[in-house]
What we know:
homodimer; 7 helices; Rossmann fold
Amino acid sequence: MRPGDPRMRPTGTLLIIGGHEDKENERIILRELARLVGGGKLVIAPLASESPEEVWEEYETLMRGLGVRHVHHLRIEAREDGRSVRAMKTLEGATAIFFTGGDQMRITSLVGDTPVFSRIYEIFVNGGTIAGTSAGASVLSETMMVGGESGESHRIKGALRLAPGLGFARDMVIDQHFAERGRINRLLGVVGQNPRVLGIGIDENTAVVVEAGKSFRVIGAGGVYVLDASGVTSSNPAEEPGDRPLSVFDVKVHLLAEGDTFDLEKRRPDRPAGK
Amino acid sequence: MRPGDPRMRPTGTLLIIGGHEDKENERIILRELARLVGGGKLVIAPLASESPEEVWEEYETLMRGLGVRHVHHLRIEAREDGRSVRAMKTLEGATAIFFTGGDQMRITSLVGDTPVFSRIYEIFVNGGTIAGTSAGASVLSETMMVGGESGESHRIKGALRLAPGLGFARDMVIDQHFAERGRINRLLGVVGQNPRVLGIGIDENTAVVVEAGKSFRVIGAGGVYVLDASGVTSSNPAEEPGDRPLSVFDVKVHLLAEGDTFDLEKRRPDRPAGK
């Protein structure tokens, strides 16, 4: 099964983390992951990393420390592993998958369109949880950011690079380490190119919890930026020849903090009363 | 005369530069300054710098190289100089003042509310040009940014620091080195606190030319971000007790590039035809 499959209406939960989630103190975000896993089976997928064993060991310890009893390691070092019996067995009965950080292209090139990926997608469609941090967050988008200079306003024929992601988060492009790496310019570039997608920029130690693709709420210490280009009156990506910066008018920006929610269908933020 | 004086309706021009303007190649921004000076008298005010002599020498050479014949140095090393005969004499007949970079607080503490400043303001009101780059750009605001961590979403009781500026650019808060230092979060913080002011974030080697306080146009290589919080539906600075990040909904953002214009009265961007 592939993301485009019409039987694949998502009913699962996404936990999308902007990177550097707190691992020592309150651990709000990892605690939320533990809560979502509940008594289920969590599979850590350190596919983005060049040192997957270390990453696995760190998160195994962390998640066990937060009371998750069934924690497993998805070992995929080459594309062949994406159809291995061992990998399929690791996923058996899994209710949550966690993609950790590194290089998002490693993830898609290792498991894109493999049986392992189809299985993960099935888990999601059946109500499971897919979590990702840093590169593991970006990869959840349909179209993912893989590069693009942060410290410079976006050039049309320039540094901004996109690639197909895993497609769990529909109609969104996710960017992480957002305030920390000054990335609003590159995300404005993407939503300016196609206002269909919502730009979601997530700060470090901050996450959004997306329920059934319909809405999300913010947890953690930083901010979440939502860039909605649906009211854009003018942008120049197609008409301009050269290496000039993007110009885009009337993008709506919402900056959300912990407890704020966002309705993805109506594209409206909300701050629940009593916050 | 002070900025608040009702006789003081600005008719002059502001050239507000995001820092690191090109000094070697096309020099579009310094060339614009030279054009604005025309046959008039340009006074370089390196007040923000701890090495004002070096800065003066560099810009004197640059501006002479661009054909400006009358280039003078406003030497102010202590607050007493703000009322010195020498300084007042330097400003005699001046048609343009250029505040260079460094620390914006040095500028305001040296000349704020001195006869020298009143004289500079008069030059502006009488149709002269006030230019500023980097710290010299920030200081042109009514309320200026003097600090605030860039790499972190704005905390309400946090790192964001403001101080009274020189007041040439009314109803605006200017931030510079904008994309390069990832500053949209702190500027969102400011406009969220008071939607009366427009946030103007200017990239390096990029500038806005403000005509008579009514509109501006963009020149240079980077982008100019306009943050308009007039439609804000919700923001939390007043109601929240702690050190939590700002949350602000429905800020309109325009990203402008060279040739784009912005009507400050209507708060509308435009991209003139043929661009």
